[in-house]
Amino acid sequence: MDWDSTINGFISYLTLEKGLSAHSIEAYERDVRRMGMYLYNDLALPSPKAVEGKHIEQFLQVLNDVEISRRSQARMLSGMRSFYQYLMLEDEITVDPTELVQGPKLDQYLPEVLSYEEIVRMLESIDQSHPQGTRNVAIIETLYACGLRVSELTGLRISHIYPDLQMIRVFGKNNKERLIPIGEEALHRIKLYLEGDRLRMMNIDPAHADVLFLNRRGKKLSRIMIFNIIKEAASNAGITKTISPHTLRHSFATHLVEGGADLRAVQEMLGHASITTTEIYTHLNADYLRDTMFRYHPLNRST
Question: Is 149 assigned a catalytic role?
Answer without folding.
Answer: yes
